[in-house]
Amino acid sequence: MAIIVQKFGGTSVANAEKIRAAAKKTIKAVKNGYQVVVVASARGKQTDQLVADALEINPDPSPREMDQLLHTGEIQTVALYAMALDEMGYDAISMTGYQIKMVTDNNHSKARIKSIDADRIHKYLNQGKIVLIAGFQGINDEEHVTTLGRGGSDTTAVAIAAVLHAEICEIYTDVDGIYTTDPRIFKDAAKINQISYDEMLEMASLGAGVMHSRSIEFGKNYNVKIHVRSSSEDKEGTIITHEVPQMEDIVVSGATIQKDLAKIGIIGVDHKPGNAAKIFSALATAKVVISDIIQTEINNEKANISFTTSTSDLKAAKKAVDSLKDALNFEKVFVREDIAAISVIGVGMRTHYGVADKMFNALAKEKINIDSISTSEICISCIVDEDQAEKALAAVCRAFDLDKPAEKRITKG
Amino acid sequence: MAIIVQKFGGTSVANAEKIRAAAKKTIKAVKNGYQVVVVASARGKQTDQLVADALEINPDPSPREMDQLLHTGEIQTVALYAMALDEMGYDAISMTGYQIKMVTDNNHSKARIKSIDADRIHKYLNQGKIVLIAGFQGINDEEHVTTLGRGGSDTTAVAIAAVLHAEICEIYTDVDGIYTTDPRIFKDAAKINQISYDEMLEMASLGAGVMHSRSIEFGKNYNVKIHVRSSSEDKEGTIITHEVPQMEDIVVSGATIQKDLAKIGIIGVDHKPGNAAKIFSALATAKVVISDIIQTEINNEKANISFTTSTSDLKAAKKAVDSLKDALNFEKVFVREDIAAISVIGVGMRTHYGVADKMFNALAKEKINIDSISTSEICISCIVDEDQAEKALAAVCRAFDLDKPAEKRITKG
């Protein structure tokens, strides 16, 4: 019997009415002949409330106790979900992370899954039960409660789908799928029917917040087909899957905008081997994530080095750089926070040329200055002035027909 | 190193401020040189809220899912309690019922404890940690969550104290100890310094609601000294312990009033061997708890049989009795709900005479009619009219000096 895993986020199970609506989707899958496993998050603002309760008692609570506190929210949801299904005449059982032996490493608040007791889930499915699993949580080898961090329930769902060899993992959410770009910024964004894990990973890491990167990595590594769809409407959403040949016909699948960026420039660094390494080693020690490193020679003795980072890492990055002033003998450091990155993503770039050219032309036509450029195999990013960023995104989207469904794009291969 | 177990009820941990106040009592015990284990209930009205959430979804939720839902409240409290102790500079760790392997039988919502992993608790205590244990909850042999029912956290605390061979189990509550009778009804009631398990069991079963009977039974069976005391004031409460010789000098330790009683009388039952057995067998089948059975012969052929039960069991009792009309050939059934029981309790009764006499005289002096009387080794109960019950309680309390501390009672042996 084929298995479906359905995941419902906090807004989709926020109250009794929404839990009942979610339960109806579960029952529909049962009626379609599937064994169904549901993974749910904590209801609505429950987790926020628990975090507030904790901070009222201790401004810096230990991650171990924070996990112990927060994992209760998901348990409440699945117990209530089981009651809802029972009331509708369906046999259901709720399970905690511990009860399905969701064993993780010891990293409280950002644990990684090591193993899951699939047999126990199969046992209840084979008894004709719908199995409801509290998302976001696990236990480590010593049976302390761990949590998987932001977006953790997505990862729970995809991991469960992987170990059960589920036909599909449905992610029910408050949007009806993945869009070519953020529809709040570019209102003509088109819904994507199908996207590859690699493209989705790039989009997630570049700020498209529908799914957490880790769950997509999991899906890619364990070959789990993921369907992101609306919890309020009954229509198809976006399938995230392995690359299929027709995906390569689409040069650009999506575009992103990142505004929480900062650029640090170090002017007049001594042009000596090893100096760049000193900078990036100091930044790594300070746990600063960086991108877009640019080094330009001024003359034989001096060079400028700049890089971008997120605004949340800026303070730590500035401190790390400043600490090297004597060692590197640089002249000064400048910081720019008024920048944004516009990126285009598509596995089709691997086999098509001219994407960068088309992107730069689209920006030039709108008189948008490009500060710097970085590229990967399936992504091109341009740093632009923040106040031109939304105009830049729109220009790029129009250039690559991202306001049209994939099958209608003239920029197809 | 001696161990103390401290239990805090829901009102004593209702918010951040109260959790901090409770934590200070824990720290005081640590400073006094004890290893400390804390058992806590769900905060304030959290359990009520969860019950309401459940009933909104399913008017008749399964006990298994109800236990899964409700056990989260206690986990939240102990995680927050650990954060509070941490913030005050003390090393603490919270544990769920599962994490200390609190194994129970399968009776969801009223499970009985089978075993506890004391080694795990000792391990953390020996690391210098304060161990916080979520009350009320356990797991059965299949690792499903169970709960111990009303007053369950008291039972958790006493059971933990038993397996750890704790010096004492402190029950912190919103009253400052056990009183000779309910101070809301007889305002001159005196606080009891020391009371035996047997007396406390009688008082609990007769409606004195401070502690649940099961936890007292546990204390008696495993020799756990229990100290019921105030969570808001720092003064001695009531010690519940094994009988000590001086307890026998006090003829009557306390008095109770039970108002939720009903009496059923069966008039004109055929006076044949086995007829009474038929009645009480039918009541047992209907799970009706009864007391004070009285049979009076009318003549050689007919007898009257009456008994008391709680008003909550009345409907089931009446139905069971009515079903026997043909078999027993009785004339009619009457029901009285306007009755109450006044009881006096004291282990001293075992060795002192005249208690019943003094009680009846006290009631007679106030012109209170006694409907029926029942006695046990350490308890005498009189059924009276409900509207005379409070006057009756006061009369009995004064007769046995229950408005004075034990050491000042002239009725001492």
What does this structure look like?
Two copies of one chain form a homodimer. The first copy, chain A, is α/β, with parallel strands linked by helices and 413 residues long. The first copy, chain A, is built from twelve helices and 18 strands. Chain A has two domains: 3-174, Acetylglutamate kinase-like (Carbamate kinase, 3-Layer(aba) Sandwich), CATH 3.40.1160; 243-413, VC0802-like (2-Layer Sandwich). Chain A has helices at residues 16-31, 46-57, 63-87, 118-126, 152-164, 197-205, 213-222, 275-285, 314-322, 325-328, 355-365, 389-399; strands at residues 3-8, 35-40, 92-95, 103-104, 113-115, 130-134, 137-139, 145-147, 168-173, 194-196, 226-230, 238-241, 254-270, 290-297, 302-310, 332-345, 372-376, 379-385. In chain A, the strands form four sheets. An eight-stranded mixed beta sheet of chain A has the order 3-6-2-1-9-11-12-10, sandwiched between helices. In chain A, a hairpin with an 8-residue loop joins strand 4 (103-104) and strand 5. Chain A binds chain B through residues 16, 19-20, 50, 53-54, 56-59, 61-62, 64-66, 68-69, 71-73, 75-76, 78-80, 82-84, 86-87, 93-94, 96, 98-99, 143-145, and chain B through 16, 19-20, 50, 53-54, 56-59, 61-62, 64-66, 68-69, 71-73, 75-76, 78-80, 82-84, 86-87, 93-94, 96, 98-99, 143-145.
